[in-house]
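Milestone M4 deliverable, item 7.
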Amino acid sequence: MPQDSITPTTPDSAARHPPGRLQAHWMAELVRLRETHWGPLEDAQATRQARLGAADLRGRILLRALLLARRENLAALVQGWRRSALAILAALGLAAVLSGIGIALGALGNGSRPVNALWAAGALLGLHGLTFLLWIASFLLRPAAATGLGRFWLWATRKLARGPDHALVPQAFLNLLARAGALRWVLGAVSHGLWLCGLTAALCTLLVVLSTASYRFIWATTLLSPDSFVRITRTIGWLPAQLGFPLPSAEVVRASDGLQALPPEAQVQWSIWLIGALAVYGIAPRLLAFLGCAVAAARALRRLEIDPALPGFSTLRDRLDPAVQSTGIDRPADPLHEPRLRPLARADLAGGPVLAGLELPPDLDWPPAALPAGVTLAGRLDTREERNALLDALAATPPARLLLACDARQTPDRGALALVADLAAHAGQTGIWLLPGDDADAGGDTRAPLWRERLAALGLAPEAVFGAGAPALRWLERGHG
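Output delivered:
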């Protein structure tokens, strides 16, 4: 069965594989930046399909961007960048886990020396507490200082973007998040998530090490009295105690000066106090902050909307949502070239085979007398309005097979070949019927060999080019149903 290599792209095919809301707006912003930097893309076909596939201007902008992104391979760049960003995020998560394990082991030591309880708590919670307070203060100050890990992740992903189009992908992502008001929340979720990984790893390490090794907790001071440590211990342990983590008794705290031997129960109390402080002051705030940032980011992204007034989008209004549709008539119709094709509607094609003639002269016998049943005759495409009407009908309901009859006595110019490519983009298979009949194969005064050469360069298979009417119509009839 003849096959051509021209693959149709239609609104229906785009609808079968719709991108998510974020990705659709992401590709629209990417196409906008691409056209802003490198000039407008050729979008006649995408614009036509967008007008047919969406009801309002914003939807048409998104659909046009989706079609152009797939044609220009920009959608693949977005997917590649997302995979790289997730891989970097996973690597940072692994580094955070290893850091948490190392901090926990460093805070406890190897067990050969007593563990200073306050120093251990400071080692586990000090840097976390400082960065968390900076994040809270960022709501009054600049937000950049609050999401260091998130911005480091974003910096690392941008370093992997090589090439002009690759560099536009993260820039489009940033622009999108900033306009939606989600940039702070996304970077905050990344930062808090990494901290959560590290603190959870530290807590698990504490549980494992304290369950399998013996440690002795003490406090040491030169200036403070034992009662000062009792107050400090109770102040730190008050909130964990409300959640079920018991406090060391005052007698245990006073006796933990390193000069007295304490029973194992006292070391258990210190261990639970340290675990409770890490869980309540470390993991719980980061978890709540992570969930808050994730919810805020999701809510902001749900409010994503295309702004038609943006540079790059504002120029599309006249083409995607014209106040008056131009028929494209460039001259008055004379009797010889009077339009013969009525505007085709979706029900006229219904996905069946279609036969059309491309600017056929009157001396050729057209239409063919023995037209197979079920074939839609689209007439002769002599004028611009006829070509546009057929293009709109094909875009609305792509046929299984499209047969285009061409005058083989004429030289195949760029305009005719471009029209063939535009029409073929909306059909499952496309065939070319070279007229006048068998004389086209025999050579004579025709330019059939040149047609075949140019059509092959266009991407049409040799088996899809016919010189005789019977094989062409049989091929077309096999596409019915």
